[in-house]
Amino acid sequence: GQNIDQPTEMTATEGAIVQINCTYQTSGFNGLFWYQQHAGEAPTFLSYNVLDGLEEKGRFSSFLSRSKGYSYLLLKELQMKDSASYLCAVRERDDKIIFGKGTRLHILP
Amino acid sequence: EAQVTQNPRYLITVTGKKLTVTCSQNMNHEYMSWYRQDPGLGLRQIYYSMNVEVTDKGDVPEGYKVSRKEKRNFPLILESPSPNQTSLYFCASSLRDRGKDGYTFGSGTRLTVV
Fold first, then answer.
1. Which 17-36 residues of chain A touch chain B by CB within 8 A?
2. How does pLDDT run across A25-69, given as a tens digit for each residue?
3. Nearest CA to CA, how far is A71 from chain B (Å)?
4. What is the nearest CA distance from B43 to chain A, expressed in angstroms?
5. DSSP readout, A41-55?
6. Residue A78 contacts residue A13 (beta carbons within 8 Å)
7. Which helix (H) or strand (E) holds A88?
8. Quick check: B75 and B7 in contact, CB under 8 A?
9. pLDDT digits (tens, 9 = 90+) for B49-68
């Protein structure tokens, strides 16, 4: 069956680094996405991985291991505006995109 | 501007009164989808459509209907709303070429059924 797991909540300090993990078991695999969502707002696209390895985009990086069904999102130089939920999502064989429940990240000054 | 437009943003209605939430995209996307988001449950897919006249059930389709008569529009219909359909709803669209962009989301519709 389908399953995407990520921690419910995490806390980190402004200026620090945080890693949000995601493990998945899905019906086929055609890419993994990370989205950011501020409370009450729509999710916005952060990153996409379809091959194993690390994708870097500014302060954000995302890693994928397809054999392990594992990804992480790395946020560096944390800022207060990074306080949000981070959603891991997998595109399955039929192009359907399913989401994890999200990780709520709290940033402390 | 490329976007997904949902209306209304906020809606309070009474049990049993039929309503429609509209969704329109201007990016010529083939794939459109409706999600509901509830605390602790994340985004759950209601219905999706791979192209015109093609719709499929997602994970929580009960109590909802959709139609895809034109490529740009994908309305969500609640024939007889109930309080357990109180939620935040998102429409989303994407290309079907398995590109890196994933979904573009609408701004959301916060529905309250009393």
1. 30-31, 33, 35
2. 987 898 999 999 998 899 999 999 999 999 998 999 999 999 999
3. 16
4. 6
5. S--EEEEEE-SSEEE
6. yes
7. strand A84-91
8. no
9. 989 999 999 889 999 999 99
